[in-house]
Amino acid sequence: MKYFVLVATLLAVAVAMPFDIFEDEEGEQYYAVPVSREKRQTKWGATNTGFGVSHQGTILNSNNHQLDGSAYASKNWGSHGIKPDQFGGQLDYSHKPSGSSAFVGADRIPGYGTDVSAGLKQNLYQNKNFGVDVTGQYGRHFGGPGGTGKPQSGVFLNAHGTFKVERYKP
Q1: Closest by CA position to 104, among listed 96, 123, 40, 114
Q2: What is the CA radius of gyration of the chain?
Q3: Taking 60 as the threshold, does the pLDDT of residue 82 lie above it?
Q4: Where residue 39 falls among pLDDT bands split at 50, 70, 90?
Q5: pLDDT at 28
Q6: What are the boundaries of the signal sequence (predicted)?
Q7: What is the DSSP string of 117-129?
Q8: Count of C-beta atoms within a 10 Å radius of residue 116
Q9: Beta-carbon count within 10 A of 118 CB
Q10: Which residue of 26, 67, 113, 162 shows the fewest CB atoms closer than 10 Å?
C-alpha cells in the first residue's frame, strides 16, 4: 500500500509539471523545469508530555498547480529509546484554475498501527458570493492490536456563501 501511494504521488507530480523542450545547434534536446524558491517552515517544541517537530512547505508552485507537503514526529518523555512515538505526513495538491484539490496522508504509532487517508474536492460552481463543491474522502486503519479496520469513506456536497447583512430601516 505504501509503495502504491509513493508511486502515485511521484507520477502525479511528474504529470503536473510543465516541461519546456529546447534544442541546441547539434540537435540535442533538453527540458527546462520551472524553479521557484518557496517558504518552508520548521517548528519544534516541548511540553510536559514530550517533544515534537514538524516541517511544512511548498514543493511545487506553478501558474496552475501547487503541491504542499508536511511531516511531523513526536516523542513522549517517559518512553524508552530514541525512535519517535508518533509520526506522519501529508501531501496536498491544488489545481488553481478549477479550485479542485486532493490530499493523501498517513499517521503511524508504532505498536498501534497506521491511519491512512485520502480525499478529493471538485468545485462545481463558484462566483463572487457563492460556491458549491463535492468532496470524497477515504480513511482506513491498518495493523495494531485491533487489526486492520474497515474502510471509512464518504461523499459530501458542500455549499458556501457570503451574505451581506444590513440593518432594516422602515
Answers
A1: 114
A2: 22
A3: yes
A4: low
A5: 73
A6: 1-16
A7: EEEEEEEEEE-SS
A8: 20
A9: 19
A10: 26
Instruction: Give Cβ neighbours of residue 146 (< 8 Å, ≥ 6 apart).
Output: 113
**3-state DSSP assignment of residue 169:** coil
127 forms bridges with which residues in the sheet? none
Q: Residue 106: which pLDDT band, with cuts at 50, 70 and 90?
A: very high
Cβ distance 74 to 86 under 8 Å?
yes
Provide the grid cell at 82: 530514541
DSSP letters along 42-109, please? EEEEE-SSEEEEEEEEEEEE-SSEEEEEEEEEEEETTS-SSS-SEEEEEEEEEETTTTEEEEEEEEEE
What pairs with residue 142 in β-bridges?
114
- Give me the chain's average pLDDT, please: 81
Supply 1's cell numbers.
500500500
Beta strand 50-61 with 29-32 is unpaired
- Cβ distance 104 to 2 under 8 Å? no
- Give the C-alpha distances (Å, rounded to integers) separating 139 from 124, 130, 152: 24, 29, 5
Q: pLDDT at residue 146 above 90?
A: no
Cα distance between residue 143 and residue 115, in whole Å? 9
Which cell is 65 given?
498547480
